[in-house]
Structure formats: structure tokens, C-alpha cells
Amino acid sequence: MSKVRVLVGTRKGAFILTSDGKRERWDVRGPEFAGWEVYHLKGSPVDPNRLYASQSSGWFGQLMQRSDDGGRTWHPVGNKFAYDGIPGTHQWYDGTPHPWEFKRVWHLEPSLTDPDFVYAGAEDAALFRSMDGGQTWQELSGLRGHGSGPAWQPGAGGMCLHTILLDPSDPQRMFIAISAAGAFRTDDGGKTWKPINRGLKSNGIPNPEAEVGHCVHRIAMHPSRPAVLFMQKHWDVMRSDDAGESWREVSGNLPTDFGFPIDVHAHEPDTIYVVPIKSDSEHYPLDGKLRVYRSRTGGGEWEALTNGLPQSNCYVNVLRDAMAIDSLDSCGVYFGTTGGQVYASADAGDTWAPIVRDLPAVLSVEVQTLP
Amino acid sequence: MIRVALPAHLRNLAKVDGEVSLEVSGEITQRSVLDALEACYPVLRGTIRDQATQQRRPFVRFFACAQDLSHERPDAPLPDAVVNATEPLLIVGAMAGG
């Protein structure tokens, strides 16, 4: 019988939640890397026992951990993330030039074909890759070296490269997103990049329709349709049907279109999920009601999913990497909150139940569907 | 031998209990002790000083003999009591945050 393994990164360690295909009873294990921030952990699509975890702390910096047995044991791998060449500067919050400095890895994206090949999205924004199971890391500096690099500026959470999407139909193509530079695409395996932000409008920057400078919070795709992208921007939910060449707003009837995560149903490429948050200065659900919104039309028309979620006095946030989708026949949806709850729905969002309620603040949620 | 006391998180990483004792060649300085420490425990590379710049991480402090040596030059000699192992070099996670 199939089962699922949910990988949860928190402010104070990682937790691994497992269940059978019913997703009713859960085994909770952790904390791994207790006391450390775990921004993200993710498994290889081709070897689900191969996991990578980004472990960091404000005191002791970045470590990278690898498991070869599905998270039962871990061992540290390479943690040297050196920018290629002379790093140069980006803009600081006050608009002055600021040297690029490595701070942490926000997101790990294992290759679709090779368990030893993994990408890492860093703060200050840069894309690294390892081809030896995480032992050594090399920067794909064509991204940071894009002509707009000196104009990139951090969002409130830091200048992070937080999203990496690999195109399953074209190994040379991938998409990344940076707060607050925007989305970028490569068509040559990471050598060169182009900004793909046409159609985005952000009132918080001097030119609302600038080529770069947008605070993209998350992008998502369905693997069967990799030219269709969905985006949760700072404000606005957006959609592209041409691999990012142009975007249109699909916020539709959302009660607020600010938010962080966005994800796509495993079997329905036009069913997408967001968690609306009140505003950029009030990072909690509108009216104290935790509601996931689902669109079955690829955006534009949205329905609130509330069954099992707190509908009063709820003031948590759901961060950009804290939503995940399993691929069981009845698609599972998962998300974690800054209040330490991890909610699961085994019926595509119709009903929800907490797996755990009292973890440290959740930074990321991933799920593996296992045979 | 030089005695070094690590903070709990780094002891866990290095899989050691209590102080570590290091054979350090040449002059006993912050740099030579950290070089020896990282050679014995490669997992600690990058956790005490930046791997690229070799600068002390901002929230790490070096204490010995009731003195804060954090702002001493990396190549300055450590106190005699550290050199003769009467006292350990304390590597400390600074009090910060909650």
C-alpha cells in the first residue's frame, strides 16, 4: 500500500511525519538537527531515500545534511558556498550598494534524474548546484551575473532565491524566483538567464512594471504542462501560459490576493491552491479565519476551503515553502503554519485535520509519495 | 595539547562530549587552534569562521582566562594558561535572540 512521508522544516529543527495512504494516523519523528533552523528539506524524485536538508543558525552558519535511508540517519555534507569570482554588489534596503554575502540556503531542488545532483537556492540570491551528493557546490553565476543583478534588492525576509522549478520536458530549462528581483528562466541549463516578469505590476517599486524588482513569493507548475506557471506575488496571484513570457492576474474573487505559497493539484493541472493573508503588514489570515482557497479553473474563480481549519481567532502565517501536494489517487494537500501546526487534507482540500499542532514555527513542508 | 571547549550545538555536530584536546603545531594562536580544530573535525568548517574570509562569525566569541579574546588578531599568541593547557579556549555562542 502506498504511503506518504511529510518533511517539515521548522525554526528549531526538522520533523518527519509518515502515514499510510489513508493519511489518518501519523507517526511523528523529530526534531532532527534540534535547535537549528531548517529552511527546507526535500527528497530525490528518483531515489526517495535520498534526502537533503538545509540546516542553519544565526550563530554557526550553514550546514547541509544528507540522508540515504529516508531520514533515519543523516550525515553532514559540504557547506562551502562560495560566490563565483568577485561577488560585486546588489542594492541594500536603503538603495545603497551592498556586497553579496552568503547567508543560508532557502530551498533545495534535487534533480529529476540523478539523486547526486541537487540545486540550492541561496540568500543572498544565487543558485548553486552539487553533482556529487552535496559534497561540493558550484554557483551557476550566469544568474547573478545577469545585467540586472546590481539592481536587485532584498525583500523583508532577505534577498533569497526561494523557488526552483525544473522542466520535466526539457532538462535545459528551469525557472527560479527571487525576493525581490522576480522570476527568471534559463533555456541552456543555467548558463544564461532572462527575467520573465512581463505583466507583473508592483506598486511598491518606482516603476510598477519594471523588468526586475518584483517581490515574487512563489511559483508553481504542473509537470504535465510545464509552460503554464502560477505565481503568488507579494500582492496578486498571476498565471503565465507561455513559460513566463507574459503574465496575467488571476486573483479573481480572492478576499485578499496577498500570500506566500501556491501549489497545483497532482492530477488536475488547472486546480491550484493559495492561502490568502490579510496584507503585507498583517501577516495572518483575514478575519482570523484560516482558509485555503482552491481554483479549479486555473485561477480567476476561487472557493474557500474551511472544513477542519480554525475559523476564529487564528493569526498564523503560512510561509512560501510550507505547502505541498502528494500524488496519491485522492490528492493530498499539506501546509504548515508559523504557529507550528501542520494540516493535511486527503481529499484535495475538501476536509482538513492537523497532523501536529505544536511544532516550532514551520518554514517548509514537502511530501513524498512512496510505494 | 590545547584544550578547547565548544558550545553544545558544535559538540553535537562534532560528536564529542566535554572539551576537546588538540595537538597544535607552531605558535598557539586563534588561527592555529582553529586550523587544528577544523582538521580534526571537518564538520566544524564554516561554523566558527567564514569559510571564504576566515573571519569569526559575528555571534561567536572566544574567551579564555576570564578575558574576551574575540577582537584579538587571529595570529596573536593566546594566553600562557591556554598554551600550557591550564585553561581551555572557550568558543562561545554569543547571547543573542531568544
Quick structural overview:
The complex is a heterodimer of chains A (371) and B (98). By secondary structure, chain A is mainly β.
How does this structure look, described?
The complex is a heterodimer of chains A (371) and B (98). Chain A has 371 residues and is mostly beta strands. Chain A folds into two domains: 151 residues, Methylamine Dehydrogenase, Chain H; 179 residues, YVTN repeat-like/Quinoprotein amine dehydrogenase (Methylamine Dehydrogenase, Chain H), CATH 2.130.10.10. Chain A is built from one helix and 30 strands. Chain A has a four-stranded antiparallel beta sheet, with no helix packed on it. A four-stranded antiparallel beta sheet of chain A has the order 4-5-6-7, with no helix packed on it. Chain A has a four-stranded antiparallel beta sheet with strand order 10-11-12-13. In chain A, strand 8 and strand 9 form a beta hairpin. The longest helix of chain A has 4 residues. Chain A is globular. The termini of chain B are far apart. The longest helix of chain B is centred in the middle third of the chain and has 11 residues. Chain B is of the alpha+beta class. Chain B has a five-stranded mixed beta sheet with strand order 2-1-5-3-4. In chain B, strand 3 and strand 4 form a beta hairpin. Chains A and B meet through strand 6 of A and helix 1 of B.
Assembly status: heterodimer
Separation of termini of chain B?
A: 35 Å
CATH superfamily of chain B: Beta-grasp domain
CATH domain class of the largest domain in chain A = Mainly Beta
Question: Which strand-content bin applies to the residues of chain A?
Answer: 35-45%
SSE order and pairing:
The complex is a heterodimer of chains A (371) and B (98).
Chain A: E1 3-10, E2 13-20, E3 27-32, E4 37-43, E5 51-57, E6 61-67, E7 75-77, E8 89-91, E9 97-99, E10 104-110, E11 118-123, E12 126-130, E13 138-139, H1 141-144, E14 160-166, E15 174-179, E16 182-186, E17 194-195, E18 216-221, E19 229-233, E20 237-240, E21 248-249, E22 258-264, E23 272-277, E24 292-295, E25 303-305, E26 323-325, E27 333-336, E28 342-345, E29 353-356, E30 362-370
Antiparallel strand pairs in A: 1-2, 1-30, 2-3, 4-5, 5-6, 6-7, 8-9, 10-11, 11-12, 12-13, 14-15, 15-16, 16-17, 18-19, 19-20, 20-21, 22-23, 23-24, 24-25, 26-27, 27-28, 28-29
Chain B: E1 2-5, H1 8-14, E2 20-22, H2 30-40, E3 60-64, E4 67-68, H3 80-83, E5 89-93
